[in-house]
Amino acid sequence: MEEESEGKLPFLDVLVIREPNGRVTHTVYRKPTHTDRYLRADSHHHHSHLSSVPRTLLNRALALCDHKYVEAELRHQSVGIPSYYADSVEMPAPVGIGRGHAVDAPIRSATCIPIVANSYRIHTVC
Q1: What is the pLDDT of residues 34-75, one digit of tens each?
Q2: Which residue range(s) make up the domain with 63?
Q3: Are 81 and 54 in contact (CB under 8 A)?
Q4: Which ranges carry the Helix-turn-helix domain (predicted)?
Q5: Which pTM was predicted?
Q6: How far from 29 is each of 12, 62, 96, 121, CA to CA, in Å?
Q7: Is position 66 within any domain?
Q8: How many domains does the chain have?
């Protein structure tokens, strides 16, 4: 069981902070052994998976951090994310607002292929 230390209590991936005035704030928690390594940009993963890493980290920062910790968290993330796919990240929609789905969208069948170098180029063939 985790215990409060120096006014801070880690809970799941949130660090709950008790301020001297009694107010409770929160930010992203990382274990001391966290390495900040995610998918390598030169790996054989589909480009949508590679671009989802910084987008997910951005969503996590916006969802978990109190206003005064957001800038520090975004600065921390920008150090470890290569600029060629960090620049392509779209700002997420505000929480609770969906992207909307087409009601009459045609149903498409899916075919699974192994991910190897350049296989993403044929993902729209089927």
Answers
A1: 888 887 777 888 878 877 888 888 888 888 899 899 889 888
A2: 8-88
A3: yes
A4: 37-76
A5: 0.61
A6: 8, 13, 24, 37
A7: yes
A8: 1
